[in-house]
């Protein structure tokens, strides 16, 4: 191994047995899941015949170019099915699949084209992209996962479609955002324009009667559908410009964040009752026909709250009628910060049951990448009361370390700590995964992280192939824990990070306290070092102590625990052999070390862990 796993990592890799009699996937609550997130195009190519999506021509027609990081590479749904053993072997209980809908193959200005390999440029919301397979193959994937007791979460989009609509203005500087104040719905082309949409009271009134008065979409720009693309989108109602905001490109701040085109993508007018009804019908059908177990919703913060208050209950009710009582919905509220106050508002105002926990990501990066004290983590969990449902709801928040947009956690830590050795980077990344798998929340593993992937940056640079890659900028990366590169197939079940995550997943399965148990912060500091929490079994109330050392020096420090504990059992790492005093125990942790300990009480605790 070019960069051998350090002693701090190697010591963690002893086996843990997986308990028998696993609960049915339909019975499991979202809080207990371990999620594996994958972009199908970049995972496994089992059917080369669909690489070009049934299209003929060069890459600007088909979107297929396996040598370019911005085009389709050939991964497909059959490939996912083929690799379910690998995914389940990691300990994943749920599979989050990047968008599978038919996309516009290629878009972008001349010389800057790229493909819809990622799935977020949808033209047909009713069909699987031919590059990935067929609707029948998606159903086969869902059925195969269910047969293994795994859930399947679909990645969906309601904010926008592919870029089809054009504006007649043809401005040299592109299409900057035009506000509702300067370009009201009542005038064509701005305040001095001709009167249109008489009686329309604006987008704050989503009643059918009000939107019946919105008949002309030319209030900011003059939108049109290019010849030959009049029916490019499915269902057909999506082809009408009246269903879009048509205000130019968002700046991702202020009013434009909700009403602007997302880098040119056609921004749906989700305040409209027709759009709401249309989107509800589209996604209800995927639940009814395929039996998926949840939705990850893209660009949630760019859609009006009223849409979500209509959409989310409709999806939950559709799932309930389909027999999916634990249907999970979580929104992407991209906000790179350690403060969960921002994302929590979407659970209160917009009605989201859960949101991707960007605050968790920001906090772990702060302590392992940026050298912040462990009080950052204490503050994070203290803020769980802000979510609708409070600390109990936080147990189901999908936590993560890195993703396909911001980049991989290893990349972020390397960016934060220039010159870091590969050995130390592996130790920090390994500790991050221990935190991910043992602290509150539903952990999400970004595909490839378990193989030591370290991308060059974010977005396209963080979307490497798991099958043998032909992208030069991927294949020259220095991966962690292995001598292999992405030029070789990356499904190594002996990789130290794969083994580590698998062990932690088995620990979560064997001990529900680590998956669904209430969490209490026990020890933290203003400097790198000790962070400790107790987690409590949701049925018995038994207490578990989880502790971490975020510093590069060994530490010995005391932490509080429940006063009833009289003994300690090591489950992970080297726990103390005894309690030092009622309510206190001294911990010894190596650099970047961690431990999970089961506390043995004098008496059986109640369900509150008292």
Condensed summary:
By secondary structure, the protein is of the alpha/beta class.
Description of the structure:
The chain is α/β, with parallel strands linked by helices. It folds into 3 domains: 7-163 and 273-510, Alpha-Beta Barrel (TIM Barrel), CATH 3.20.20; 165-267, no CATH class; 517-601, Golgi alpha-mannosidase II (Immunoglobulin-like), CATH 2.60.40.1180. It is 26% helix and 16% strand. It has helices at residues 7-10, 59-62, 77-82, 84-89, 135-147, 208-211, 256-259, 273-290, 305-321, 341-348, 358-368, 375-382, 390-394, 409-416, 422-438, 472-475, 496-510, 512-516; strands at 35-38, 94-97, 101-103, 106-107, 114-115, 122-128, 151-156, 166-167, 223-224, 294-297, 328-331, 354-355, 398-399, 442-446, 518-523, 530-536, 543-549, 555-560, 565-572, 584-589, 594-601. The strands form 6 sheets. It has an 8-stranded parallel beta sheet. Strands 15-16-17-21-19 form a 5-stranded antiparallel beta sheet. Strands 3-6 form a two-stranded antiparallel sheet. A hairpin with a 6-residue loop joins strand 15 (518-523) and strand 16 (530-536). The longest helix has 18 residues, at 273-290.
Please describe the topology of this protein:
Elements: H1 7-10, E1 35-38, H2 59-62, H3 77-82, H4 84-89, E2 94-97, E3 101-103, E4 106-107, E5 114-115, E6 122-128, H5 135-147, E7 151-156, E8 166-167, H6 208-211, E9 223-224, H7 256-259, H8 273-290, E10 294-297, H9 305-321, E11 328-331, H10 341-348, E12 354-355, H11 358-368, H12 375-382, H13 390-394, E13 398-399, H14 409-416, H15 422-438, E14 442-446, H16 472-475, H17 496-510, H18 512-516, E15 518-523, E16 530-536, E17 543-549, E18 555-560, E19 565-572, E20 584-589, E21 594-601
Parallel strand pairs: 1-2, 1-14, 2-7, 7-10, 10-11, 11-12, 13-14
Antiparallel strand pairs: 3-6, 4-5, 8-9, 15-16, 16-17, 17-21, 18-20, 19-21
């Amino acid at each position: 191994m070019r960069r051998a796993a350090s002693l701090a990592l190697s010591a963690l890799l002893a086996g843990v047995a997986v308990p028998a009699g696993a609960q049915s996937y339909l019975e499991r609550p979202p809080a207990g899941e371990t999620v594996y997130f994958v972009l199908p195009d970049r995972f496994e190519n089992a059917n080369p015949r669909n690489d070009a999506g049934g299209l003929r021509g060069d890459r600007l027609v088909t979107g297929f170019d396996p040598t370019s990081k911005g085009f389709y590479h050939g991964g497909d749904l059959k490939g996912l099915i083929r690799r379910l053993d690998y995914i389940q072997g990691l300990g994943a209980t749920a599979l989050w699949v990047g968008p599978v809908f038919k996309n516009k193959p290629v878009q972008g200005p001349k010389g800057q084209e790229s493909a819809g390999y990622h799935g977020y440029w949808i033209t047909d919301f009713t069909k699987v992209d031919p590059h990935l397979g067929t609707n029948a193959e998606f159903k086969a994937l869902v059925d195969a996962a269910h047969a293994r007791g795994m859930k399947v979460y679909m990645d969906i989009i309601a904010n926008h479609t592919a870029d089809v609509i054009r504006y007649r203005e043809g401005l040299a500087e592109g299409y900057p955002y035009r506000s509702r104040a300067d370009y009201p719905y009542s005038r064509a082309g701005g305040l001095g324009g001709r009167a249109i949409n008489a009686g329309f009271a604006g987008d704050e009134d989503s009643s059918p009667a009000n939107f019946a008065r919105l008949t002309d979409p030319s209030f900011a720009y003059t939108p049109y559908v290019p010849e030959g693309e009049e029916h490019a989108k499915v269902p057909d109602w999506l082809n009408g410009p009246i269903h879009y905001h048509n205000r130019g490109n968002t700046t991702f701040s202020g009013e434009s964040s909700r009403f602007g085109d997302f880098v040119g993508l056609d921004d749906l007018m989700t305040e409209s009752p027709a759009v709401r009804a249309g989107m509800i019908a589209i996604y209800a059908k995927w639940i009814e026909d395929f039996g998926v177990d949840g939705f990850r919703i893209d660009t949630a913060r760019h859609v009006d709250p009223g849409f979500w208050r209509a959409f989310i209950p409709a999806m939950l009710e559709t799932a309930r009628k389909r027999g999916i009582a634990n249907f999970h919905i979580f929104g992407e509220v991209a906000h790179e910060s350690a403060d969960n106050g921002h994302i929590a508002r979407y659970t209160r105002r917009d009605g989201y049951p859960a949101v991707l926990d960007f605050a968790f990501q920001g906090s772990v990066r702060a302590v392992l990448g940026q050298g912040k004290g462990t009080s950052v983590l204490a503050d994070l969990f203290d803020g769980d009361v802000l979510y609708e449902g409070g600390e109990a709801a936080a147990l189901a928040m999908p936590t993560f370390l890195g993703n396909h947009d911001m980049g991989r956690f290893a990349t972020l830590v390397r960016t934060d700590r220039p010159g870091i050795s590969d050995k130390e980077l592996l130790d920090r990344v390994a500790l991050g995964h221990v935190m991910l798998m043992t602290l509150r929340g539903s952990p999400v593993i970004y595909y490839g992280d378990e193989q030591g992937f370290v991308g060059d940056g974010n977005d396209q640079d963080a979307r490497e192939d798991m099958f043998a890659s032909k992208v030069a900028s991927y294949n020259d990366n220095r991966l962690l824990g292995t001598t292999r590169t992405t030029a070789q197939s990356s499904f190594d079940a002996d990789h130290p990070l794969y083994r580590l995550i698998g062990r932690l997943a088995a620990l979560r399965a064997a001990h529900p306290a680590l998956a669904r148990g209430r969490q209490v912060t026990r020890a933290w500091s203003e400097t790198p070092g000790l962070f400790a929490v107790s987690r409590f079994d949701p049925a018995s109330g038994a207490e578990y102590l989880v502790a971490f050392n975020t510093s590069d020096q060994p530490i010995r420090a005391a932490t509080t625990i429940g006063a009833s504990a009289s003994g300690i059992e090591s489950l992970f790492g080297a726990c103390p052999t005894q309690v030092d005093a009622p309510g206190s125990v001294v911990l010894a942790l190596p650099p970047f070390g961690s431990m999970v300990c089961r506390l043995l009480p004098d008496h059986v605790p109640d369900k509150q862990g008292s």
